Amino acid sequence: MGPIWDTMAPMAMYLDMVGHRGEPHQRGWLPRDCTLYGLSVGAGFDNLAFVGEMASGHPQQVYPSFVCSGGRSDKPSGGDNPMFRFGDYQVHQLVHGEQELTVHGEIGPTGSVISTSTVVGIYDKGSGAVVHSESESVDAATGEPMFTTGSKLFVMGEGGFGGDPGPKTPAWDTEDAPPDATVDWLTLPVQSLLYRHGGNDPNLIHYDPSVAAAAGFDGPILMGLNTYGFACRALVETVCGGDPLALGSMAGRFASPGYNGDVLTTQIWHNRHEENEVLFRVVSNRGTTVFDKGRATLR
Questions:
Q1: Which of 56, 57, 109, 273 is deepest in the core (most CB within 10 A)?
Q2: Where are the beta strands (DSSP E) in 211-284?
């Protein structure tokens, strides 16, 4: 038997949500949240500044990707957040397709921001629908821009409604050159259980084997944002020289699922056509590309 959405009639996408701007909501974080996130993307004693907030001689640093999932909101998931109201679908049909982050300010171990989300578009991809959302976050005290996050969520089986197919993806070409840097990370057998808390992701598909099987997977899959965090850590340790403040943006596409215990290899190329930009992707020891067409800018 195939995935359960193969047997379901398409549901309605709420196209009138395009352009909807949600109510601003506040969220904050403490050093402990940043430490837990650092641990959930594989940092350890070799990265003590990211996971040892009380260690002497190590002012705490934060991986920029933390803000895509870390921190605590002043309201529960859902509510007026437009990301949760773009159509009728089953949870098994929803896949994180793309993620982007642009950093405007300094992300420290303690922070509070006010975030406002907007539905940028709902696109018809034939086999499914893509929902593009953006969230702009400003410092809660000063109003200064801190970061902008964007995501594209793929809703399996909900395409074919005759809508806009969406903008074309910019060209991504490594010119068949070998990577300028390669970083291997071994994920834990309980990786998705750890990131469930470090990245605030309660989706059952990542830790309930029966739910993962119903969606057609061999077992609980890694969160896409967990893979994104491993890639961020690799970028910080290589092209950023260990300084997280040097990373200006990172974006890319989730290509295939990773599994607990996989080895994730981040391959990085300097873009020979764009100064201060690198291209990257993440491949697994299973021979699959997990995160593809990655771009990052340096500050």
A1: 109
A2: 247-254, 263-270, 277-284
The distance of Cα 249 from the centroid of its chain, to the nearest Å, equals: 12
Contact 146, 157 (CB under 8 A): no
Q: Which of 92, 201, 208, 292 is an active site residue?
A: 201
Q: Pairing relation of β-strands 145-156 and 25-29?
A: unpaired
Is 11:91 a contact under the CB 8 Å cutoff?
no
Helix axes 31-40, 191-198, angle to 10 degrees: 160
132-179 pLDDT, tens digit each: 999 999 999 999 999 999 999 888 788 888 888 888 888 898 889 999
Complete domains list, the chain, with CATH:
4-298 (3.10.129.10)
d(CA 71, CA 146): 14
Q: Do residues 206 and 221 lie in contact, with contact meaning Cβ atoms separated by under 8 Å?
A: yes
Q: Which one of 96, 124, 206, 262 is the catalytic residue?
A: 206
Q: Using CA atoms, how far apart are residues 279 and 149, in angstroms rounded to an integer?
A: 19
Closest CA to 112 of 74, 148, 62: 74
Question: Taken in order 102, 107, 109, 111, is the CA torsion positive or negative?
Answer: negative
Tell me whether residue 206 is one of the annotated catalytic residues: yes
Question: Strands, DSSP E only, in 125-242?
Answer: 128-139, 145-156, 181-186
pTM of the model: 0.89
Catalytic annotation present for 201: yes
Distance CA 53, CA 132 (A): 35
- CB-count exposure of residue 203 (10 Å: 0-12, 13-18, 19+): middle
